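Weekly structure sync, notes
Attendees: PL (lead), two postdocs, one rotation student
Agenda item 3: pending single-chain targets
PL asked that the sequence for the first pending target be pasted directly into the notes so everyone works from the same version. It is reproduced below exactly as submitted, 246 residues in total.
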Amino acid sequence: MRPEDYEAILCDLDGCLISGDVLLPGAQALLARAGDRLTLLSNNSTETAETLSARLAAMGLAVPPTRIVLAGTAAVAHLAALPGARVRLFASPALRAHAVASGLTEAREEVTHLLLAKDPTFGYRELQDVIGLLTRGAHLVVANPDVSHPGPDGVPVPETGSCLAAILSILPGVDYDVIGKPEPALYHAALSRYAIRPERVLAIGDNPLTDAEGAERLGLDFVLVGPHARRWADLDRYLAEFPEAA
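Predicted structure, written out during the meeting:
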């Protein structure tokens, strides 16, 4: 499972390369070894490829926007492609701005769809608004199902899935679509950039429920790193086990 044995590498972000604004062990080494074969495939639903690329560059990771695929922007693209969709956004300011730039105008009346993404301001009032819109027939689109991701201090950071859990505690039977991992749409968006067979692709992640499950569904080889991994605690240990050929 050496990185050099694959024509494309899809790597998760939080918990693999970074934790908050902290670089994790092996992050820079993986980028150096993978080069243009690497695409970041993340359930991040607060940033755009451009803002994330700039943030990573400030941390010492050079990843151009063209090699970043995010659940939040993929969810916006999904909604923008729906004819006549009238969308209410529960998302970060960056993702809302991206939605407007993508041609979505946020609707306040006759809402047909809701976008639920990671929004640090999501609270009781927003939850009440979501419940009201869903009971009136709007359809829910969820950027990703992650309930949390690892924080740099070891404390889990709440994610979109925690807001979804609050909604489901009130409307347990509500129908919704998930765009991010483990669903295949995000993987297809990344793999469309490569004209290669699935067996030539390596996926790397830290979440067995999203990263590992998604890779398995598409038949991709998978490397699990982080606290849930028995073999590799981080990318540094994974890369050390599979050094570059002399």
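Discussion points:
- The chain has two domains: 3-71+181-241, 74-178.
- The domain at 3-71+181-241 is CATH 3.40.50.1000 (Rossmann fold).
Action: rotation student to compare against the earlier draft before next sync.
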